[in-house]
């Protein structure tokens, strides 16, 4: 199946970062022939995952920066934001780090669908959609050259 190459309209539920990704990636996918109107839902999932990851990373970086601004060493701030202590006293990954990890894995799966990773590029094929001709409708006739153009040989 070779659907027509076109950029579908973005769904209204996309967040701010997801909309930015939609605007960034859709022209590139169109240029490569890797997008059609049928891809709206899959593209929305990809953009939402990319947007959510950007939001989580921004939040994580903000928490680290707040600790650095309070005088903590950068490496210590990253460790403190990355870990939390359980009620029994054990260190574990913080919720934000778990969410970032989950979003990265999810985003990587969506990247594969559109051939947006080096490993996936070889498995994705661009659409070779050709507008079908309708019965009873002839192609537009070629205009005859005018002026000096009628004396030139177009086959040279």
Q: What strand order characterises the main sheet?
A: 1-2
Number of strands: 2
Number of helical elements: 5
What quaternary form is this? single chain
Low-confidence runs of at least 5 consecutive residues: none
- Kindly state the mean pLDDT as a whole number? 84
The amount of helix comes to 40-55%
Overall 3D shape = elongated
Q: What amount of the residues lies in strands?
A: under 5%
Largest sheet: 2 strands, antiparallel
Terminal CA distance reads 39 Å
Structure description:
- Helix content is 51%, strand content 4%.
- The protein is mainly alpha-helical and 156 residues long.
- Strands 1-2 form a two-stranded antiparallel sheet.
- A hairpin with a 5-residue loop joins strand 1 (83-85) and strand 2 (91-93).
- The radius of gyration is 26 Å and the shape is elongated.
Task: Produce the secondary structure layout.
Layout (H helix, E strand, L loop, with lengths): L15 H17 L7 H30 L4 H9 E3 L5 E3 L1 H19 L4 H4 L35
Antiparallel strand pairs: 1-2
Helix pairs in contact: 1-2, 2-3, 2-4
